[in-house]
Amino acid sequence: MAALVAGTPWMRIRVIPEFAPPFIFRRHFRRNFSVRASIDSDAPVRVRFAPSPTGNLHVGGARTALFNYLFARSKGGKFVLRIEDTDLERSTRESEEAVLRDLAWLGLDWDEGPGVGGDYGPYRQSERNSMYKQYAEKLLESGHVYRCFCSNEELEKMKEIAELKKLPPVYSGKWATAADGEVEEELAKGTPYTYRFRVPKEGSLKINDLIRGEALILFDSVMKVSWKLDTLGDFVIMRSNGQPVYNFCVTVDDATMAISHVIRAEEHLPNTLRQALIYKALGFPMPSFAHVSLILAPDRSKLSKRHGATSVGQYRDMGYLPQAMVNYLALLGWGDGTENEFFTIDQLVEKFSIGRVNKSGAVFDSTKLRWMNGQHLRAIPFEELSQLIGERWKSTGLLTESEGPFVDDAVQLLKDGIDLVTDSDTALSNLLSYPVHATLTSPECRPIVEDKLSEVSAHLLAAYDSGELFGALEEGPAGWQKWVKGFGKTLKRKGKSLFMPLRVLLTGKLHGPDMGSSVILIYKAGNHGIVSPQAGFVTLKERFEILRQLDWEALNQDHPALESAATISN
Q1: Which of these is catalytic: 305, 359, 368, 485?
Q2: CA-based angle 197:233:259, to the nearest 5?
Q3: How far apart are CA 169 and CA 165, in angstroms?
Q4: pLDDT single digits (tens) 225-265
Q5: Where does the signal peptide begin and end (predicted)?
Q6: Using an 8 Å Cβ cutoff, are 43 and 11 in contact?
Q7: Which of these, 357, 475, 480, 311, lies nearest to 67 by C-alpha position?
Q8: 394 is catalytic
Q9: What does pTM read for this prediction?
Q10: SS3 of 55, please?
């Protein structure tokens, strides 16, 4: 038998006839029931992300939002943003704004919610209190809920007794069977009370989890997803101050907002039973659930602040790109079945399937995230990349201009060594610096020094003094290549024996990007005046003066002593 619930024509609840009870029963009646809820296959997909504005958006929350977004977009449905701010002491508008900002930065635009509106608002729980009270009263009238007048001291005493008896610390049910007269007496005295939900003692309930399978909940045993009713007890849905409890709010909100699929973290699994009982008591059909595994740290514990950065805002400030964060978060527990790991948001929407979400926890690997960010960074059209990095260099005080030929050439030369936008500062600073003394006195450079490096230096200084070298650099890459070829012939050197000495003498380093392009760029930087005075730039002219003053005899004869001095200096 299929019974449509009034006000929600898009859903259908299927009740097994032989166990179907009346929806309303008297105060002391505990019903037996067996109900299976299902959503009409033709119903529109509506999912929600419901963060609590008590802090920054954690990467785990961002992944949950992303999976909801991808599912909605892949099904042509709606992605709803709801703010769960019933924790009045910890919720702040600043945290809410930060969460909204992070979601917008990731590109997860919501169809309904704060700043957008919609037909199912308001979208902040703090603005929906009258609705919660209305449904709480409905449950009280039907007998699914009763008033509990127990004081905090009484409840603590119950916990102590349960502990002594080695029983679960659940409510004893003192007010579950109270006579109407007793209740009226307490009300007349103005005794504070909570609303407690009556947990059935018999029956069964099936919950469909799209990731973990269908769970059959029996009120004395369970299958697949484990809950035990004897550890649940009659639970509070409204506090004595009139504030609703989380599980009650969530159920009412999801039902009245016509949410078809609840995709959330597995830590909400224990809440599902309470919410399912409330769904049934109110006559609401349940949505489909999908409980996503936790994001784990490298030690396979739950990812937390002690493992480093965990919030989206931190990664944004560290220079990560939103498209890289989205790509990486999608792969934490999901894959398209191929070896491909590089996805744009549009490709993720096209390929995403909740059926391919993994049940096991996914380890957050910051090294892989950095690598992936580099892949996305280098996939940006060059003009945009140059603008992005150029603006970074100007804002950090390395350059006086954010665009132009020098910026374009520098980005082109350095981009392969940049995984984060912030890496570009170090890359450019390294190019502009000239740590020749430290390099010459290092163990790695000793074979180069001993291979008559002083002779190469003398010929290089001669090429500088004659204007021959700078004339070649003025001609660009072709001029440099022609000069190097001739210089090598003069010294009867080629390959590594030519280029390693030149790299050390001209750049002051043993390793780096293409040497010819580096030297040409250093030459241009000295001529154009684009480098800020505080950038620590050593021009080519200054480099040659440093080479002219080097004591090669000391370098060749007392290399270990100089090495030690350089180490202390560094």
Answers
A1: 305
A2: 50
A3: 10
A4: 445 555 678 999 999 999 999 999 999 999 999 999 999 99
A5: none
A6: yes
A7: 357
A8: no
A9: 0.82
A10: coil
